[in-house]
């Protein structure tokens, strides 16, 4: 179970890094938008595109071993489907 949470955290970091091609500077006086819990992810499960899923649902798929480090995932803002274990520098 601990491995599932670790993988979910790693996946979230990789997806957030790979989908952020924009500068994340904060203008003086501007307030950041609220944290969005509505980011939707898609996954290639059983050879088919599945989703949209929120992070909680993806964690359930990880715990049940239906989503692995090799499963391709995508969210809006990403150019391509990637495995969650791939990290961007």
Straight-line distance between termini? 27 Å
Going by helix content, strand content and strand pairing, the class is alpha+beta
| Major sheet description | 3 strands, antiparallel
The percent of residues in helical segments reads 25-40%
Number of strands: 3
Mean pLDDT: 77
Strand content: 15-25%
The count of helical stretches stands at 2
Poorly predicted regions are none
> What does the overall shape look like?
elongated
Strand order of the largest sheet: 2-1-3
From the alpha-carbon coordinates, what is the Rg to the nearest angstrom?
14 Å
The secondary-structure element order is: HEEHE
Tell me about this structure.
There is one protein chain. By secondary structure, the chain is α+β, with helices and mostly antiparallel strands. Helix content is 29%, strand content 16%. The protein has a three-stranded antiparallel sheet. The longest helix has 17 residues, at 2-18.
Brief rundown of the structure:
Helices cover 29% and strands 16% of the residues.
Can you lay out the helices and strands and say which pair or pack?
Layout: H1 2-18, E1 41-45, E2 48-53, H2 55-63, E3 73-75
Antiparallel strand pairs: 1-2, 1-3
Pick out its properties.
single chain; three-stranded antiparallel sheet; 3 strands
